[in-house]
DNA sequence: CTTGATAAGTGAACCGGTTCATTTTATGTT
DNA sequence: AACATAAAATGAACCGGTTCACTTATCAAG
């Protein structure tokens, strides 16, 4: 492996000059710049980035912790992070934590040990379950929830849920089912809050039996749909806490012979690409995933570069998209 | 920042002993091991990984180059890579290249400069368009095509396409349309080859006008469906080169009033999760994405660790999955 | 042709681990 | 107790860049 000293010898200059030629070419004479260039070419010199980073103590890397990489929503957030990071000359180290706190610890350790400059967490913050130390680690929570104790970017989940459910109520629905995420998930909590707000502000009483717990994955949507179908009094509309479960629920109901939206209205959350492919297309809430990623990265870089010191919370607007899967309530259901 | 020398002083030992205690604890006496442990605790010492990697010259990191992170197929391959890498103690650095060769070069440079030990490329190899140097970089191509000149993992794309199209022919279809990827894409080439083989082995003449070029994305599927619909002699079945375009085409045809599969049969490729959600569910080819990722990582690690030197090609079996979107040919079409 | 100021270049020290030849200590044998 | 041998510990050198106090070259002004 050729080192900077080899180049120095070849060019007849000192290592300091070579180093400067590479990082601050404007501070080196044109004549010598050419010599350096020639020597580098001749020796096919590639600076050892590990040595560079080690000495200069900046990794130019940010870590992104993802609970599940095979999730389209996260993929889009990452895409946004990537684009901002790249522009700023930072690398993005992606950590698929698979909800394992051991892995999360490993990635946080990378920041503590200067392998990375900061971390963006895509797993929503849960009280008493944060592995992030209070100090010494620059961190941003993307797609977070209310009450995250460090810098975060999110949408108003409760408000969005409220909006969706209010729309269903205005369409005449009064028995509105919910397919939620896991109860302990912070997103579930926020969105359920919005659901209940919508009911109460329209004078509808909350019926606990209409909330079926899912886990944000496909099969839980299918199973929830079956449970609803078998109720003596099936709801006329179902608010699903993400698109995947909503699409599953539609399939579940269709297989039972119900028509959507004539017999039952369905709403989702996230606006995945699929949601506009599916037949019928899905009424849902669009989260600006890519922008959430971009903003998170910007916030983190500002912290790393010392431009910002206090913790901030950025709340993006969401978009409620009405498509074919919802319609006015009519008597005929089931 | 506390260094190993601080720990040595605190424990009353030499740096060498501390270092050994951390990497080969079995070679240090129990008594001193405890002293070291105590000193580390007391000083809250975190070894500087950059220094470690710099000195030991192994980054324990592999780079994965992805043309598009927001693509479910890639996400699954990555997931497989991650799991193998993690198990071997390697980190995975994800590079979203967005088909930009500049970015690809940057990531390859990371390997050349020892920031990473090897690279897995998820973009299929295209002749005269490879940025990988012939030597000095450990590389594996995942989800590759026939004729990749370095180690690779793939399925038999041509064979799978042949199988799909042969099935359609056996169901009585003779005019079979194709929605392809971009012509220059190697996957397009391989799959088209399979399509033509199926036709010729059943004595059906190839009709160029039945191949419509798409780009693997949703809208190109919609547009292709429209073009087929407007033909004087619309095909009775369409072979789509990925699921996304197949789902789009189904929607396109349905919107025109055609029924699937009664009026027109549709097949996809990839078996995305959505493909079993969609109504009707999609007949397609399943690629073992996760396994492709795992195998790629295993091959790369073997190369890095010097266990294997020659370049290898691993071809996974594919799975042809018949669902609801295809049926026997009947006269009534359109 | 000095002088002074600025630009360019030098090279040894440094970053914080790991490594290894060498010294010290522990263990076993007779 | 004396000696051989293995195990443990030592600490200086090293990795390949960057940094910075210092020297040398350059050039405009007097």
Automatic annotation (TrEMBL), chains A, B:
Keyword field: DNA-binding, Transcription, Transcription regulation
UniProt domain HTH lacI-type: residue ranges: 2-56
GO molecular function: DNA-binding transcription factor activity; transcription cis-regulatory region binding
SUPFAM superfamilies (alphabetical): lambda repressor-like DNA-binding domains (SSF47413), Periplasmic binding protein-like I (SSF53822)
Pfam families, per the entry: LacI (PF00356), Peripla_BP_3 (PF13377)
InterPro entries in the record: HTH_LacI, LacI/GalR-like_sensor, Lambda_DNA-bd_dom_sf, Peripla_BP_I
Name recorded for this polypeptide: DNA-binding transcriptional regulator CytR
